[in-house]
Amino acid sequence: MLTIVLPSIHPHSLQRMLQNLSDTIEGHSYLVVFTPEHMVLDSSLEEGDLSGTWVIENGRLGSSGAQAEAVRYIPEDTEFVMALSDDIIMTEKGWDEIIIENFIRREAETKSSPFCLGPRMSWGGVNAMYGRAYATLPLMRKRDVDRYGWYDPIFYSRYGDNDLGLRIWSVGGRVEWTEKPLIDVHADNARNGMAIREDDRYKFLQRWQSRFPDWPHDPSRYDCGIDMEKIGFFEGNTTNMPNYIQYHTARKKAGHTNPWYFNEGVIP
After folding, report:
1. How many structural domains is the chain composed of?
2. pLDDT tens readout for residues 208-219
């Protein structure tokens, strides 16, 4: 069974997301909705193939802290765990079965453990930090979540995804994206966008800077979203990510022109 963890503090966005999930999920899935108390509905979260529970947020935990707390409520018979947010749209009916099939196949082909898969966006964007791929909406096996962890509550908003991805790579695992785009970002994303908090940045550097001593001390410079369709050196132009990538070259090939991305010279 797939369990989806969905935190939200935006009532309208959450209602739209719940309807979208109800319309697109085809296999039986369980949903853990994590919200402030005033957003809890009278409904039982039972509709078609979608069932679940509503968990009340105790204080403002941020997106990373909410994921870390909410994952404690997933059922024991869960096989796969996936993080979602309320500012996206699942564009493919049956996306849940598609992503799990993609996960099982690529996990076997790459012989990777732990393995993590993220759904590609319709415009092809993928993410990397310090040259390592990370998934903003990760899908993992529950046994790997139990063993290696999920989002870390020490982060409030930014770097929860990045930290999880780097933890997977650091133990010999692998992070990829689905070959087929499955999501769009809703216009509300501009409203929900999170600024980088200095305490999050500091905690991230405390944990990871020693692993990448040759990289500058501002991790936000190397938190990179690249249009995969335009990058020639991704093997097969699909989901295989090298350990390191020259971001200044990648950005130029992807058509980015802002010099902010290119002023650090050659990156290892």
Report:
1. 1
2. 888 877 666 666
